[in-house]
Amino acid sequence: MNTSSYNAESIILLEGLEHVRKRPGMYIGGTGKDGLHHLIWEIVDNAIDEVINGHASVVSVTLQADGSLTCEDNGRGIPVDIHPKAGRSTLEVIFTELHTGGKFEEGAYKTSGGLHGVGASVVNALSQALHVKVKRDGGLYEQRFSRGRPLAPVARIEDARGHGTEVTFAPDPQIFEDTAFEPEEIARRLEIKSYLHRGVKITFTDYSQGSKKSQTFKHEGGVVEFLDDLIAAQGRIKVTPEIFFTERTDDIEGSVEIALAWTESTQVQIKSFVNSISTQDGGTHEAGFKDAVHKAIREYIEAHDLVPKSLQINSEDIREGLSAIINLFIREPQFQGQTKDKLNNPEVRGHVASALRATLSNWLNHNQTIAQKIITRIVQAARARAASRSAIKAVKRKTAISHRLNLPGKLADCASDDPTESELFLVEGDSAGGSAKQGRDRHTQAILPLRGKVLNAEQATLKKVMANQELMDIVKALGCGMGEALDLSKLRYHKIILLMDADSDGHHISTLLLTFFYRYLKPLILNGYVYLAQPPLFRVDVNKKTYWAADEREKARLLKRHQSKGRVEIQRFKGLGEMMPATLYKTTLDPDSRRLMRVQIQDERVLETENTINDLMGKDPGARFIFVQGNAHQAELDI
Fold first, then answer.
1. For residue range 468-502, what is the model confidence (pLDDT) as tens digits?
2. d(CA 558, CA 541)
3. Could you tell me if 62 and 185 lie in one domain?
4. Quick one: 114 and 90 in the same domain?
5. Cβ partners under 8 Å of residue 210, min gap 6
6. Which domain holds residue 617?
7. Which of 104, 128, 411, 442 is most exposed, with minimal Cβ within 10 Å?
8. Are residues 285 and 335 in the same domain?
9. What's the rounded Cα separation, in Å, for the pair 413 and 404?
10. Nearest-CA neighbor of 495 among 473, 516, 478?
């Protein structure tokens, strides 16, 4: 392995490490679960960068029994010699200074997951402990850090053959709400990375549950295999068995791989990645993809005169049911924010569009049987959309009076007739409902109190569901119908918020309601209309300042942070009904200060969601017994 081109001169020092611990959200997006796991991807992406650029072939990730995480690669190994400008070991500079890394120096990497010199130092700053081992130049070197500070200089431990880097870190409990990593999430993300890099071998070993569990990910089929597996896991049906694939590599513009297929689903699913990083919010590469698909399909339709003149086909019709993977590698990605959720490079739009448009047009023209099925699918979407537009116009012609007919008597409705600003709170109990009615914003917030635990819709027949007063009151209040008759254009509220007590009974009622929504009002979840309120369980007063804690863990963190600042008083709310209307509004109803959690079903977890609801809420007690046995160690007593 030639390491001469990757040395101290390859690392450029831009500025010192500042404010990371004070403002972690600026660098990792937050201190919750997503921010915690973002630390892993910063370190893993460093190893993947070695793979992308041909310096490594194996990446190993280990979740240790003590909760720390280790990432190891067989790449070149981080340089350990003295940095010419910093006067310290290059390894120490990379892990203690912001904006340092081999990715800044032109020629050190062709493509990388971003400015990961930032990533290494940020992970170090937010870790209680971090330990780096490096093999290169015939030796094994190590250095230890705590909360971003080196505990000792880099030391050569022994002579060693081979090359590579091993980083072990433990997140800092002073920073993160919870420092426990989720093995399932790690495994899922690692498998995705193995799809994006054909031939790379990624191993994941988990010791966190008290025993060793190992998985190895290697997918020779790359993004085509990824898309096929994704569609199958979601239970979707492809319009044609074939998946279209194209790739282009350019020394200047980088490389792009695209796999796509149309399905019978009405949902559009485009998953894009830049240098192996998921760009959840899209960007210029997705814009280029959409341009190319639209133009290629338009050209084929017009060339073969396949659509009636009276039918108007738009971009939504063309993309309906489309599933695609875009896997892009470029030299200098410009991301929006350190968390890299959106790509901003303007030149990429044309690069991706030109890579796809001609090859997709050629594929359609040379596979006209396949093309005919795809166009038929698009025409069906256009006709359905036209019918929907007519229905919406008919609904809009109805008067505001008819809009409010047949509403349940206990509903305290809002004054607004605009669904986009109207909110419906489903509240546990008449007592809490009374406080909510008094504290709400009457113009935009409606309250529907529910009595007791609602029917389990997973076990009940449709006849029993239809006969249940509480569930039917919800359907009447929403105004959009249910099941196959559901019409989103008639939905009266675009925020449906489940507001239950912050205890086990409240969680149970929320679960029962979510089960009903999933089985009979699923489009409301899929379109992002359903939310869970996060009312506080505790009020913590420190001197004259008030804090709110959602659970025991957050309360403990508040006490630890403020225990030396004066007198502390704690109040535990037995239920929402105990809160004064003004307090309930401030903590739970006020859009400026409340916490809401949107209910979502991730595309890759559709099948898992279906199985979980069937197992936990269905009639078979055996599945629940297995679940309880496997998760009993996580149970907590709620008194």
1. 989 999 999 999 988 878 899 999 999 999 988 87
2. 10
3. yes
4. yes
5. 65
6. 601-633
7. 442
8. yes
9. 9
10. 478
Nearest-angstrom CA–CA distance, 546 and 559: 12
In a shared domain, residues 78 and 23 = yes
- 489 within 8 A of 624, measured Cβ to Cβ: no
552 part of a folded domain: no
First-to-final CA distance of the chain? 61
Q: How many domains does the chain have?
A: 4
State the Rg of the chain over Cα: 28
Of 217, 241, 263, the position where a domain reaches its end is 217
Residue 540: inside a domain: no
284 and 357 belong to one structural domain: yes
Classify strands 596-598 and 568-572 as parallel, antiparallel or unpaired. unpaired
- Using a 10 angstrom Cβ sphere, with 0-12 exposed, 13-18 middle and 19 or more buried, the burial of residue 217 is middle
| Residues tagged active-site | 428, 501, 503, 505
Would you call 528 helix, strand, or coil by DSSP? Answer: coil
Sign, CA dihedral 553-556-558-560, equals negative
Looking at residue 283, which CATH number applies to its domain?
3.30.230.10
Q: Does the pTM exceed 0.85?
A: no
Helix or strand holding residue 449 (H, E)? strand 445-450
Q: What is the pLDDT of residue 176?
A: 92
Which residue in 43, 38, 338, 18 sits closest to 148, CA to CA? 18
Helices (H) and strands (E) in the chain, counts: 20, 22
Query: Can you give the three-state secondary structure of 134-181, one letter per residue?
Result: EEECCEEEEEEEECCEECCCCEEEEECCCCEEEEEEEECCCCCCCCCC
Say what the pLDDT of residue 398 is: 39
Tell me, yes or no, whether 135 and 270 share the same domain: no
Pair (119, 264) in one structural domain: no
In angstroms, the CA 234 to CA 236 distance is 5
Q: What is the pLDDT of residue 582?
A: 86
pLDDT digits (tens, 9 = 90+) for 51-71: 877 888 899 999 999 999 999
Q: Which helix (H) or strand (E) holds 545?
A: strand 545-549
Beta-carbon neighbour count of residue 243 at 10 Å?
20
Give the CATH number of the domain where residue 458 resides. 3.40.50.670
Whole-angstrom CA distances from 309 to 231, 298, 302, 368, 387 are 33, 14, 11, 21, 16
